[in-house]
Structure formats: structure tokens, C-alpha cells
């Protein structure tokens, strides 16, 4: 099987981002976004998806974190879509339940080329470390839209904001790992009764 890799670079007046990834990696991560807690989340995402991930981002953090976080989601999503190529033989669907102490989060996704996000996670703090908690949804929305996945993320219960956030990233990681896996029984076919994926 050809190794599924991609590199994407996106530069605007607000951010300059490069992403390299390997869907068939071992979870190695090299992350630098300028936002410490976000780096931590992306390192966990790489580890638990087994995707080798490099992210280098420079953004207008003197304004706030919004552009950097959203644009990293865009570029990672684009790179995942590139690495998937024609999507022949992939499992397509994935799901995961991730417990972290008192917290439980579920993620389900469909690599359908019909992007959609259902986000059901609430935070009782405005920040975790220096990270604006309202930006979690922005990242997941940007990722889903540009990776072309239908993604549902739901925090079923929990009280610790760090646990809630981290379980969302890990749930996405494990669901994505399942969905991008090659199914040997698919014999290289497109995983759709239509014979194609997309609108």
C-alpha cells in the first residue's frame, strides 16, 4: 500500500501555516502554534490517531488566538483530505468513546465529502491556560469542513474543563484512526453504494 502523506501550506494576512502528515504513521508529533494548550491537544490528537503530524503556525496572536486556531483546523483538514486521495478501500466510518476521570466524550464521523459538524460540549471557564475555550468548536468546525467529514462530537458528562477538551480531541483522533484504516475486505473499492463519495 502506498503511504498516505500530504503537505499543505496556507498563508494569509493573518496566519502562515504549514502542515505535514502521514495517515499511516505512528503518532509522532512536532507542533508549534504559539498557543501552548492547543499544542498539547494536537500532540494528543496525533498520538491517539497514529497520524504523524507536523504543524508550524505563525499567527496574529497579538490580536487573539482565533485566526491561528481556526486556520490550523483548515490546513489539517485539507491535508487529511489530500492524504486520503480517492478514498478507495477505507473503512469510512469511525467512532470512539473516551473516558477521562469523571468525563466521557463520544465522537462519530463519516468520511463522506459532505462536511457537517454537530458539537455538543460546554465549558464553564473562558480559558484553559491561555486558550480561549470558545475556539474548540471553531477548530473542529474548520477541520470537518476542510477534511470533508461529517463529524459529531458530544461530551456526555464531565466537570473538569481540561478533561472535557482533551477527551474531545482524543475521541476525534480514535474515530479518525478507525475511519481512515484500510479495510482489506473492501478490495480497494469506494465505500459507497453510489460508487462515489461527495455531493
Oligomeric description of these chains = single chain
CATH homologous superfamily heading: Imidazole glycerol phosphate dehydratase, domain 1
* Cα distance spanning the termini: 27 Å
**CATH level-1 class:** Alpha Beta
**What overall form do the CA principal axes indicate?**
globular
Taking strands numbered 1, 2, ... along the chain, how are they ordered across the largest sheet? 1-2-4-3
Strand percentage lies at: 25-35%
Number of strands: 10
Pathway: Amino-acid biosynthesis; L-histidine biosynthesis; L-histidine from 5-phospho-alpha-D-ribose 1-diphosphate: step 6/9
Protein name: Imidazoleglycerol-phosphate dehydratase
Pfam families: IGPD
Keywords: Amino-acid biosynthesis, Cytoplasm, Histidine biosynthesis, Lyase
Q: Could you describe the 3D structure shown?
A:
The chain is an alpha+beta fold and 199 residues long. It has one domain: Ribosomal Protein S5, domain 2 (2-Layer Sandwich), CATH 3.30.230.40. 33% of the residues lie in helices and 31% in strands. It has four helices and ten strands; from the N terminus they run E-E-E-H-E-H-E-E-E-E-E-H-E-H. The protein has helices at residues 36-49, 66-84, 135-147, 161-180; strands spanning 5-11, 15-22, 29-32, 52-59, 93-100, 103-111, 116-120, 127-128, 131-132, 149-157. The strands form three sheets. The protein has a four-stranded mixed β-sheet, with helices on one face. Strand 8 (127-128) and strand 9 form a beta hairpin. The protein is globular and about 45 Å long. The model has no long low-confidence stretch (mean pLDDT 93).
Amino acid at each position: 500500500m502506498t503511504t498516505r502523506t500530504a503537505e499543505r501550506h496556507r498563508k494569509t494576512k493573518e496566519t502562515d501555516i504549514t502542515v505535514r502528515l502521514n495517515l499511516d504513521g505512528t503518532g509522532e508529533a512536532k507542533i508549534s502554534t504559539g498557543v501552548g494548550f492547543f499544542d498539547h491537544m494536537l500532540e494528543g490528537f496525533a498520538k491517539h490517531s497514529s497520524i504523524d503530524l507536523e504543524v508550524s503556525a505563525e499567527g496574529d496572536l497579538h490580536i487573539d488566538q482565533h485566526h491561528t486556531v481556526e486556520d490550523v483546523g483548515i490546513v489539517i483538514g485539507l491535508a487529511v483530505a489530500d492524504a486520503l486521495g480517492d478514498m478507495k478501500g477505507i473503512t469510512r466510518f469511525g467512532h470512539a468513546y473516551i473516558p477521562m476521570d469523571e468525563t466521557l466524550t463520544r465522537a462519530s464521523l463519516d468520511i463522506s465529502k459532505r462536511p457537517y459538524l454537530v458539537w455538543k460540549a460546554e465549558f464553564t471557564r473562558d480559558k484553559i491556560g491561555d486558550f480561549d475555550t470558545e475556539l474548540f468548536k471553531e477548530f473542529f468546525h474548520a477541520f470537518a469542513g476542510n477534511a470533508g467529514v461529517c463529524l459529531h462530537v458530544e461530551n456526555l458528562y464531565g466537570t473538569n474543563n481540561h478533561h472535557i477538551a482533551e477527551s474531545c480531541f482524543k475521541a476525534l483522533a480514535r474515530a479518525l484512526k478507525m475511519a481512515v484504516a484500510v479495510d482489506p475486505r473492501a478490495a480497494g473499492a469506494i465505500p459507497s453504494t453510489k460508487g462515489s463519495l461527495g455531493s
